Batch of 4 targets.
Target 1
Amino acid sequence: MDSWYHAPGEIVLSIWLKEVEVIYDPFNIMSHVIKESAKLVYKPSPDEVEH
């Protein structure tokens, strides 16, 4: 379990939010962010890969 707290304006789409389960969001702030984050695809560039 992980918890973090941010103001609504600080929340951005992230690859790390792909499979997040929001437990408590009474104002439904996170649903759009979670839904759009699920569409993100991370593809490393050749410079990011170590041989």
Target 2
Amino acid sequence: MAIRGWGDTYVSPDDPPAHYRHRDCTGEAHVQHTCGTDVTARDITLEPGPVILAHLGRPEAEGEEQRQ
């Protein structure tokens, strides 16, 4: 659904190739990113996870594993 939303916005903005409808109300379904409130790409910060940190030999990886 996220990739479909990107394609509808940037590849075919005037005429999407398909409509994804909710069965109960027939409304158009869309992906919504939330973290208590709606967020956009501008609201997101990318951080390395434990696997990347471990691969880089960073000591933070051990602390990340303990939190999980």
Target 3
Amino acid sequence: MPYFIDNKNLFNLEPSNGDGLRDCQLGAIWALKSYKTNGTNEVASLISTPTGSGKTAIMMAACFELGLRKILIVVPSKILRRQITNQFRELRILKNKNCLDENSPAVSVYEVTSRKNSREEWETILDSHDIFVSHPNSISPYYQGLEPIPVDLIDAVFMDEAHHEPAPTWQSLNSFYRTQLKVFFTATPFRRDRKRMSAKLIYHYSLEQALEKEILRPIEFHGESIGNHPPDSNEALLETAIAVFEQERNTNPTCSILIRTDRIEDAVNLVTLYNDNGFNVDVIHSKRSSSVNESLIEKVNNGELDGLVCVGIASEGLDIPNLKVAVLHATPRSIPYTIQFLGRISRTPLDQEGPAKLIANTDAVRGEVRRLYKSDSSRRLLIPQIVDEQMQLARHYRSSQAKEEDFQMPELNVYFSALVYSTPANFNFQDQIASSSSNFEIIHYEQENDESPLIIVTAHNKPIDWASREIYIEDLLDVHILYHASEHNLLFELTTSELALDSLKDSIINMELQSITHGRLFKTLSQFSQSDYLMVGMKNSALAGSSHPSYKTLIGSSVQAAIRSSEGRVFGTGHAVLRLDEENTWGIATRKGRVWAMKRGTASEFRDWCDHLCTLIVDGPVIANLPGLSFLATSETATRIEELPAAIIPDAIFFKAYNVTISSPNHNPIRNFTPILNGVRLQENNSRLLGTLQLDDLSFDFTFDLNSDRLWSIDGANDVTVFAERRDDTIVDKSIEDVFNEYPPALALTDGSIIVGRNKIIPNTDIEDLPNEIWKEKDWNGCNIRSEAYAENPNGDIPVINQTIELLRPSLVQGGDLIFLDDGAHEIADLIYFDSANSTIHFIHCKYSSGNNAGCRKSDCDELFAQAMRSIHWISSPILLDRINNRLENAQNSQIVYGSDELLVTISENYRVNNWKYNLILVQPGFRISQVSNKNRANNNVYELAIPMYERIVGSNGNIEIWGT
């Protein structure tokens, strides 16, 4: 099979007989063929032609001309999905244009109407189909619990109506298929919502051209000024619609009408209103089945209906050639959507004459389209004018002549900001400088001598970040300065683009360099008598939670006076800006070891400033905090790990990014899964921690070594990659080992301190006693406290989890409460109890006793407390119910032990994080409460370990109970 290769001999792009394709369609095909020769699949190509100019024919012809085998077509609505499916099956458009032999066979097209769960399902489907048409909700990697078409099984992705691409579901598709040929099709290659399409515009055919070629017809506007009261507006628009439509029917008997609103309820009411007044219309929307919507469209085409009422984007891509009148009961607020909608009525059927008619209430117009609807200008002139204004900045411009032979490098005037690294005594720059990425080109580099800064200038095509559309600028220049102060074994790095520098850094530096420690960094500000802080950023040093932000910033004059001493229990220094004197304001940031000054200068002046920093960093003792901020959590260089961590918490990107995909060869993508790290043993005088990393059902051994240049290493995980994104931004796209080294997990130690990277952060540990109410004495008679796992039909004394359920049973409300058993690998908790009456979700962790009698044994709390600290990110988690449903479907031991499947569905559908309270219950019948709750009891390790755990849980907006005997 592949259809488009096997039947290429039946296709002719430019037939000698017949009409053939339009000029704009041919131009788009030629642009695509050109881009295929010199473009890259990493960047999608964008085709912009007006609505009604024939984008579907371009797609069809592209399949033949580009020699494609398997093609995924993504569309924004179920209506358009069915329409594209039917059109591709017969390729009637190409046959009617004499581009394809009339006797050519049908194409095997698969309409994706449901989500798939495995690669095997897709392999079976792809064996017998060439085209796959889908809505993003059925195929986007953004959603958990579905399997996209595997990357290696298709060779092209077409996105129709691609102005939706900045939406997360579309962005995830674009990112997932980043190595496949991707072609975006749209009538509006720009957006006004400040979101950019991740594509390169390779062809644009303007509205003005389409009007001149009579591909489109002008639009005559009938504006009504009738206020904002919906009933009045509806009646007035209906009255105008009756008059306009009757007049049109006299001239064009087959014309039809399209009526737009925003809500399904309003659409149903409008159908009644119009039909009661002589029209014969029906409604299409996303809640109706594809077959019903398709049949209604066919009725309009056949003249059985006068027209349709549509809701929102249901009108996009509608193939109803005889549409001529449009009524807007809800006016689109953006230029792109307005143009999409107007394109439905502006096509020029052979059997119609005269302009299209648009009816709207000008008093109801909002946003950027006000100019369009309030203007007296002709729509024929105004719409193309507005679009062309948008497009003027969407063309390619040169920002410099940097690649020309006579280009002169200007004198640098850089902002003083540098990351500072420690270097070994034998450090030197490498001789050969090269970029590993085709996106960045080195156009200039210089270094006067070994003691001078190395200056590199790179060029690349880059979109302007502040623009509301994708604008490529040729030869955008970035400068990178690397200065090695060999006498002090320090390296200073200045760059205007980290991405560009990363592409060439490995060719300059052949070893892993570490940022200077916090203690050395703080010294850059410590030797000045003036302490007027203009800004202080405080990083959550007790690990982030919901009630404590991960970061807090104060701005003003002498802001250190506004910081409470109690902040030191939670926060350490993140960054600070200090006015040193009238001429000097400096800042530091602990994230990567950065120092900056509010000044600019030449490369030579930058070197002098770095030399000054060297003196400050090297002279005198290392300090634990900035001057005037000693009450914040202190920092010292981590040289030992005194004992196994109570928990190892991955960086927040794993549970704060809206989409995280972990990929491993020969394994299904692991989506939105928080890595589980467990410390196993310490080596090398407690400077090295060995442990295990769990990624779903994958397991790896890791090493965290304070004496190694590279702190984190993961055995056998070289090909395991992490892709994380937040809104439009990609946060990371690299190997998991690189992620751990750049975004290091936090080792939560039993004394309340935390090791992140090479820094040990020690919060202010002055704390009141733990509240007495967290300790709960329970009756464990009839329970085998040495056995934990749930048993369906236990004999004799029952296990701990069974007894815990029995202890909950008296408070359970039938029909309202639910208990989910999740005891097993990668569990959320042993039990999750939904207490509907109190709007509380209880995460219950159970552990068996290490002894026959209750006492105060540290061994009984180690794993229990670690599980509690690891599970805290499920508090207020928006994906909690998704994970529970996934566990119920896929985990062997997960089941509902109280309640029903129907109740879980109800809870899932109505789940809102802010409507619930969250409580962690730690069950250990081996705890004798009178002993473990006594702070003054000698060697009460359980109480001491409970303190950092309690602080973290409360700081995450949760409550805690500890059940014992």
Target 4
Amino acid sequence: MKVVLPSDVSIPDKFNIRVVGRDLIFNVQQAWRRGHFVGLTILKIGKLPAPKQAVSKEDEATTAPADYHRIGARRSYRSRD
């Protein structure tokens, strides 16, 4: 993996990088550094668990329960009525 950082920023030899929006996390090790570029070796790849979304009381009040009586019954292909 190749990343760009200002040359005056120091980083540890091993650390984790999280990819925002993809729920991925990489355990990496610094391989080389030349100016603003840093080469990283990927040691492990992991997937973060999906965030739990809390339902507020306002959302519960505005969400009406589903009316399953309107759906009706499914008819068999054998019935003629």
